[in-house]
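User: Design a sequence. Structure:
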């Protein structure tokens, strides 16, 4: 945890403890607001949420999450402050459709399955957006939405920053004059749009939410973004593949939870795989690479060689052989420095960006997958083994 995160958590934990001691009974929400009462759009910005898997980031007391659950959504409400979580748990001990969790937002997103909708009522800017958006990029299913409000101008009239950096803002304990310093990323709409675009989101709208009180300068912006329906792919680098990598295998490990993918240190998600060694069959190369990279054991006799893919990268024509493995033993683990974070991903929510050869292998196996990649010539095999 960074120093900024630790300071923010300490401030919000103090805030939660103060509110617990006051035992103030706030009413349930009778309408949606984005931290500015009687201003801005309401619940209509979400559309029909019935049956959606929804995440509330920085949920605090949990009133918005409970409101969303009452509309028929399956809501997980996450807050990193133990006392804020305690307040919510005491207020909503057993609310249908609502699950409360005390956790770091990025940690939760990395461990949880993809959500249909993620929203945050002014909570997202308390975390470094580069860290959080990286987790959100794969924590929202393709086609899913991210909607959040963010401070634009504070009550003293200070507008947004011109660089992606945090700045101190004042958190006042209710009913007192006691102030605590929190660190926020108060950014211009252009910076938010740039950050969202860098992490694979399409910004669909920005709505100003101004205080209706003429003597209050506070202003927020409501950002609505969407993860594209199709999953992009890219090379690891601009360098041409070395000759030793001109013939390789890509291992599609299919299980009940989807397909196995690991994250390369250069940022792409990819299948286990690598070069074929002299004397190996494609199936033997596949099960060797699977064990060396992800620690899973498989039998070459049970591996299915799907065909060959011919790509064109500069003057080099790489040949990749996709191999399907459906039976194995062991638990995925990082065994090599270059690739880790192995996990099974649902086919309806594959992470982005994929490594180009891995995307090509997946498309050769399942052409209906919504993957974007350079075309490759596919020669399928009718038989097993090879």
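Assistant: Done.
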């Amino acid at each position: 945890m960074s120093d900024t995160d630790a300071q923010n958590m300490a401030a919000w934990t103090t805030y939660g403890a103060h509110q617990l001691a006051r035992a103030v009974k706030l009413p349930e929400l009778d309408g949606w607001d984005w931290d500015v009462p009687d201003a801005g759009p309401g619940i209509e910005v979400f559309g029909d949420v019935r049956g959606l898997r929804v995440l509330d980031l920085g949920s605090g007391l949990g009133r918005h999450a409970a409101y969303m659950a009452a509309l028929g959504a399956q809501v997980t409400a996450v807050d990193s402050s133990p006392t804020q979580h305690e307040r919510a748990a005491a207020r909503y001990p057993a609310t249908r459709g609502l699950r409360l969790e005390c956790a770091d937002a990025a940690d939760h997103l990395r461990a949880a399955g993809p959500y249909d909708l993620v929203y945050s009522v002014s909570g997202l800017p308390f975390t470094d957006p580069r860290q959080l958006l990286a987790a959100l990029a794969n924590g929202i299913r393709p086609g899913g939405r991210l909607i959040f409000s963010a401070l634009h101008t504070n009550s003293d009239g200070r507008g947004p920053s011109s660089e992606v950096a945090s700045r101190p803002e004042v958190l006042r304990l209710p009913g007192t004059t006691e102030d605590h310093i929190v660190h926020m990323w108060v950014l211009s709409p252009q910076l938010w749009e740039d950050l969202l675009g860098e992490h694979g989101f399409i910004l669909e709208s920005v709505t100003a939410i101004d205080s209706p009180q003429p003597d209050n300068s506070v202003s927020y912006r409501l950002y609505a973004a969407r993860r594209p329906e199709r999953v992009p792919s890219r090379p690891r680098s601009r360098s041409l593949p070395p000759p030793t990598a001109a013939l390789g295998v890509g291992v599609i490990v299919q299980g009940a939870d989807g397909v196995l993918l690991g994250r390369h240190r250069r940022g792409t998600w990819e299948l286990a795989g690598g070069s074929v060694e002299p004397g190996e069959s494609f199936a033997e190369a596949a099960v060797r690479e699977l064990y060396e990279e992800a620690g899973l054991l498989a039998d070459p006799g049970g591996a299915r060689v799907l065909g060959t893919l011919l790509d064109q990268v500069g003057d080099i024509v790489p040949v990749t052989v996709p191999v399907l493995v459906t039976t194995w033993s062991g638990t995925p683990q990082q065994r090599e420095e270059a690739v880790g974070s192995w996990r099974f991903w649902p086919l309806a929510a594959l992470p982005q960006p994929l490594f180009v050869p891995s995307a090509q292998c997946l498309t050769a196996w399942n052409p209906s997958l919504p993957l974007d990649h350079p075309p490759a010539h596919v020669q399928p095999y009718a038989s097993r083994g090879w």
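The mean pLDDT is 92. The first helix runs from residue 3 to 22.
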